[in-house]
Design a protein that fits this description.
Elements (H helix, E strand, L loop, with lengths): L2 H6 L3 E5 L4 H13 L5 E6 L7 H9 L5 H6 L3 H4 E5 L11 H10 L2 E4 L10 H19 L7 E5 L10 E2 L10 H10 L2 H12 L5 H16 L5 E6 L1 E3 L16 H9 L16 E3 H18 L5 E5 L9 H13 L3 H6 L9 H25 L6 H19 L4 E2 L2 H9 L2 H6 L9 H16 L7 H33 L1 H28 L1
Parallel strand pairs: 1-2, 1-4, 2-3, 4-5, 5-7, 6-11, 7-10, 8-9
Helix pairs in contact: 2-12, 7-8, 7-10, 13-19, 15-16, 20-21
The structure holds NADP nicotinamide-adenine-dinucleotide phosphate (NAP).
Length: about 525
Amino acid sequence: MSMIAAFYGGKSILITGATGFLGKVLIEKLCRTSPDLKVIYILVRPKAGHTLQQRVSQIINSKLFEKVREVCPNLPEKIRAISADLNQNDFAISKEDMQELLSCTNIIFHCAATVRFDDHLRHAVQLNVTATQQLLFMASQMPQLEAFIHISTAFSNCNLKHIDEVIYPCSVEPKKIIDSMEWWDDAIVDEIAPKLMRDWPNTYTYTKALGEMVVQQESGNLNIAIIRPSIVGATWQEPFPGWVDNLNGPNGMIVAAGKGFLRAIRASPLAVADLIPVDTVINLTLAVGWYTAVHRPKSTLIYHCTSGNFNPCNWGKMGCQVLSTFEKIPFEKAFRRPHADFTANTITVHYWNAVSHRAPAMIYDIYLWLTGRKPRMTKLMNRLLRTISMLEYFINRSWEWSTYNTEMLMSELSPEDQRIFNFDVRQLNWLEYIENYVLGVKKYLLKEDMAGIPEAKQHLRRLRNIYYLFNTVFFLIAWRLLIARSQIARNVWFFIVSFCYKFLSYFRASSTLKA
Ligand SMILES: NC(=O)c1ccc[n+]([C@@H]2O[C@H](COP(=O)([O-])OP(=O)(O)OC[C@H]3O[C@@H](n4cnc5c(N)ncnc54)[C@H](OP(=O)(O)O)[C@@H]3O)[C@@H](O)[C@H]2O)c1
């Protein structure tokens, strides 16, 4: 009997961020392994013209929930959507709903956040810091609460190289920042943001660090744990391999590269690609929920959910596996290809961005304009390149995270729980995982037909040939212009041509003699 699954039986669980990437996998696993849980409260806001109920039924009727629908036929009754907006005071929850939440909740999983790296500091503080503070305040009024699990990120301290399982202080108290946001106007926030963020690369990581400080300061008598996942990728095993449904982080890069829009990124091939499958994160999260509630550790424990420490994979290997899946060539062949396709130095990337990203986009826009359609490619390309440039910080560095708590928890689980709630990434085969990931992006995210793979491969080959042709033409024009203007260039050119001619003449003469 699984102790973890049994623990969640009969419980009332509150989840924020339930409509997000992690949230959906969390609900799925909870309902599949503990179909006898009492209720899952999810805080949801209406969005894009969809009501709460429409959003919930979209989720539970999706492919991800296929297996749960079998084991938990009364799934819709188990999920109770509460209208809430985490940007509002008291989350704009009605009095009755608030009363129910306060009196019934046993476990809280706080997943909601803004994960946009370049979000405005005011908005990032509101969601990642102030909302966390408010939720902790709510939690402090819940008499039945057994555990509060806060999802942070392994990059909340990415300004450090080695990160321990502790909460590091930020120079300015989060409470002061929350207060200041009330009277600072946007111009002041913009001016002060770089000074506050100092060596944090973006508002996301900075506000997640502030969020952790808030958790520490407001924990009171609560039973709290923090989980810090690294870059969360598609499912590894459950409910099936390769499931993914958003364009964040590596997913967007896979789509852009797979569609032929992205030719090069600046990444260090040897830097550790600290990717962690979403089902691994959720298994750890559920195990932490159980451990925190049952064992009630004396202090807030932090769990790093990373792969680099256990089973490292670097960006070079990952890029080659992506290429191998795109082109259906063996990994070894992809590995022998010049790595420039996925990794390049600053100068080559600037060249690539200009010649193989921006210029073709502009030409395509001119074509759209000439054919009476609205040009859109340059705008799209600029957006893509801006997103990629924000990721560069993370794909050119490696970090070390200590994982004592995660290993301790692993050893606390029964063999059955280790199997059902597996978060041991030492067993992960990266090549197989990346292949499933890339195929999953095509199938579940882009919802494309898998029968179209040969066609997609041909499309990629065509785009690559256009790219080579474009480069050759560009080189010839540049060279022609240079020769026209510079005597030195002309001399070099004649020297190369005469050298080639002599070499060919010698080669022809020696093969005639041999004959
Ligand atoms: N994905 C990763 O690679 C990664 C890595 C490390 C840590 N994490 C952490 O994991 C957690 C979940 O991330 P994710 O990837 O699942 O993010 P996500 O897919 O962007 O989901 C964010 C969730 O927060 C909700 N939310 C945002 N603003 C809200 C508001 N004002 N009111 C109510 N709900 C709101 C969203 O609801 P809507 O659907 O209504 O927008 C959504 O459910 C976050 O704390 C993140 O920092 C993620």
